[in-house]
Specification:
376 residues, alpha/beta, Oxidized Rhodanese, domain 1, Rossmann fold, 16 helices, 37% helix, binds zinc ion
């Protein structure tokens, strides 16, 4: 029966080995190779090779094909000393990777040679626990979760749309959430504005939202803006955030937000509701239409009654606000296909979704002069 030494010897015969010196030289010459760190998390905290991907041995076989889907990718595997990486390189070879090698001497040797390494920003134990279901998704991973934690999202209105959006953004770990709302909670809000509660009637909505968010996820930094958004304060406010989620209930505010967001290059995730119908779209300046391309002018007030005048099914903003939160997560992490140039409509009576293409209006008074990026 083979012992450990035999196994190592055998594996070494089947794979290629490279040295830290060779790796350093090849990286310096701009070679297209990927570094794969197979050490455990507590080892990685002290430094990794620049640009390396980390995949501990526990998840290696099940995850590596998600991390490197192209089996012609050149992969250099390393560990602390160059032993574990031999077995991981052998596994990669068995999985069909054509250009794999193990770096002899591992990270210790790399460090001894004085080569560059980076102290990675990683999730702490509690964050890893809280976001475990995200981290395991190949589209999110630890990297995506860190992006969420570093992101700043402004939610305009802590009402029907803002409520579910805020709940899910907070739970997902968006690091900084701004809430702008100058109203106080009223009893008639509670039929749909689920971030508030009966005992908070009379409390500022922004403050009430903050209390609920802190209960869900105390790590979220909540910034309260308890004033009315207008043309004089909108630019300063939205400039502080990466992404705007518009949950406002009136045309005036939507135009104020849109007209300030376009020159700042800020993406606005639009949501609106009317009785049983909802709409969602994402407006990214330079990459699609803006809100004014869709509605150049506000309809007369008699054609655009508010929820208090027309009524609204309580669950409808829950669905639309969740779709807005879904857009936000995609945009922050960078997977999937955003609703840019697409207007999604939802009918709560028939439970049907429909999608309409929305094109940028070259004569749009707001974004007509913004050059559209070439995109596939
Ligand atoms: Zn436009």
């Amino acid at each position: 029966m083979a012992n450990f030494r035999d196994l190592l010897k055998q594996a070494k015969q089947e794979i290629d080995e490279t040295t830290p010196e060779e790796v350093q030289a090849r990286l310096g010459s701009g070679a297209d190779l990927r570094l794969l760190d197979v050490r455990e998390l507590d080892e990685v905290q002290n430094g990794v090779l620049p640009g390396a991907t980390h995949l501990s041995r526990a998840h290696f076989e099940s995850r590596v094909e998600d991390v490197f889907p192209d089996k012609d990718t050149e992969v250099v595997v390393y560990c602390a000393s160059g032993v574990r990486s031999v077995f991981s390189a052998k596994t990669l070879k068995d999985l069909g990777y054509a250009k794999v090698s193990s770096m002899s001497g591992g990270f210790s040797r790399w460090k001894d040679l004085g080569y560059d390494f980076k102290i990675p920003r990683i999730l702490d134990a509690s964050e890893r626990d809280r976001y475990a279901r995200h981290i395991i998704l190949p589209q999110v991973g630890e990297k995506g979760q860190l992006k969420l934690l570093d992101s700043k999202v402004l939610v305009i209105g802590a009402g029907g749309l803002g409520s579910p959006a805020l709940l899910y953004l907070a739970a997902a770990g968006v690091g900084t959430i701004g809430v702008i709302d100058s109203d106080v909670v009223e009893e008639s809000n509670l039929q749909r504005q689920v971030i508030h509660s009966t005992d908070r009637v009379g409390v500022l909505k922004a403050e009430s939202a903050k209390q609920t968010i802190k209960g869900i996820n105390p790590d979220v930094n909540v910034e309260i803006h308890a004033f009315r958004l207008d043309a004089s304060n909108v630019t300063d406010l939205i400039a502080q955030y990466d992404l705007i989620l518009d949950g406002t209930d009136n045309f005036d505010t939507r135009y104020i937000v849109n007209d300030a967001a376009v020159p700042l290059g800020k993406t606005v995730i639009h949501g609106s509701i009317f009785r049983f119908e909802g709409m969602v779209s994402t407006f990214t300046p330079g990459d699609g239409p803006c809100y004014r391309c869709l509605y150049p002018e506000a309809p007369p007030p008699e054609l655009a009654p508010s929820c208090s005048e027309a009524g609204v099914l309580g669950v409808l903003p829950g669905i639309v606000g969740c779709l807005q939160a879904n857009e936000a997560l995609k945009l922050i992490i960078g997977y999937g296909e955003p609703l840019v140039g697409r207007l999604l409509t939802f009918d709560a009576q028939s439970t049907r979704f429909a999608e309409v293409k929305v094109r940028k209006d070259p004569n749009c008074v707001v974004c007509g002069t913004v050059r559209e990026h070439a995109h596939a």
